Amino acid sequence: MRRRTQASQLAVAPGEIVLRDATRSFSIRADQARTLKEVLLNRRTTGPPPVPALRGVTLRIAPGETVGMVGRNGAGKTSTLRVLAGIIPLQSGQVACGGRTVALLELGAGFSRDFSGRENIYLGGALYGLSKAELEQRVDRIIAFSELGEFIDVPVRTYSAGMYVRLGFSIAAHLDADTLLIDEVLAVGDEAFQRKCLRRISEQIAAGRTLVLVSHDAGSIERVCERVVVMDAGQVAFDGPTAEGLLFYHRLMGTEHGSGESVRPPPDRSVEVSEVELRDGAGRASRVFRCGDPVRIVVSLRALRAVTAPRLALEVRSQDGSRVFRTGTPVELQPDGTAQLAFDIGRLGLLGGDYDLALAGHDGEEGSAFDRTVRFAVAQEHDAEGIADLRGTWEALSPVPEAGR
Fold it and tell me: pTM of this prediction?
C-alpha cells in the first residue's frame, strides 16, 4: 500500500521508470538467546544499527531504454530492483514503474514447490494479472523455450538450480511486459541457455520493452544495454553510456589494469607472462570492444632462468574453447631478464561474443601450454552473426542473355 502511495505521486508512461531520492535501510536484529532473568526483567539486547541500502537514489529510465546496473556486492543493485518491483517499500522518496513490470530476481520466486512446472506457469501468469485464456496462448511457447521436456509435469521441488532459472526466465520472457527487471539469476544457467536468454532479451528490446539488467558479466551488459548505472555504497556513482560505464566500474573495482587470470604453468617453464593489458584506440585499458575497433595488447614477460631463444605465443579462443587465431614472435630480453611487447590489431575482425586471450612464454619452439588468460567481450552486431567479420556488399546482377538471342 505504501508503494502505491509513492507511485501515485508520479505520472509515468508505460515502460517508464522513475526513482526520486529513494532511501531504504535494513535493520539487523540480534539473535542472541535470552536468559530467564532477562525475560523477567524485560531486558532486550540491541542489535547493530540499520544498514543503509539506498541513499537518495535518483534515476529516470525512458520507455524502451536498456540499462545495465553494476557494482560491487552490497552496492544496492538488488535493493533497487526490489524497490522497482514493489517487493520492498521505500522509507522516503518516490518510485514508479509504468505499465506491466515483470521481475526475475530470485530462483523460484513465487513458485509453489509442490506444483509441477506447468502448474507454476499458470500460477506465475496469474500473479502478473494474465487470464487463463491469455496463458493458454503462451504455455506451449514457454515450455518449448525452457527445454524442460517431460520434467515440466514434475513438482519443482525436484528441480536443480538450472531448471529453476530455465522455467523462471521462460515465464518472465513470454508475459509481454512493458518493463523487465532481471537480476544475476541468468548466471546459473548453462552457457547455451544464457546465450538463448540474451537472444530473447534482444527480441524484447527490439519490440520496445524497457530492460534493467543486473549482472557482473561485462559481455552481457555490453551486448544488450545502451546505458550503464554504476552503484556504490547505495548511491549512483556513474550513469552514462555503456563503454564509459564499464570502464568506470573496472576502475572502481581496481581491475582496469590487470594481468589476467593466471593458469598454473608447467614446472619447467623458463619464461612467464607477468602482465597483460588490453587497450582501446584511445590508449585506455578496456575489456569491451566493438567489431572494427583498433586493439593493442601489451604484454610483459620475465625469464625464470637462463634462456637461449625466448618466444611469446598468443592465441584467441571462442566461447567453446576452439582456436580462432594464433600467432607468435621472438622476444629480445633486457639485461634484467624482462621484456615488454605490444601487439596491434588495426581492425578487430571478431563478431559479438565473449573471447579468451591466452598467452605463454617459451624458450625455443612454441608449445601448447599457456600460463595466462584474459577474458574480453565484443559487442553484438545487428546485421551479422558468427565469429569472423566477413561483411561485404550485395549487388543485384542482370540476367545473362542466352547464346543466339
Answer: 0.62
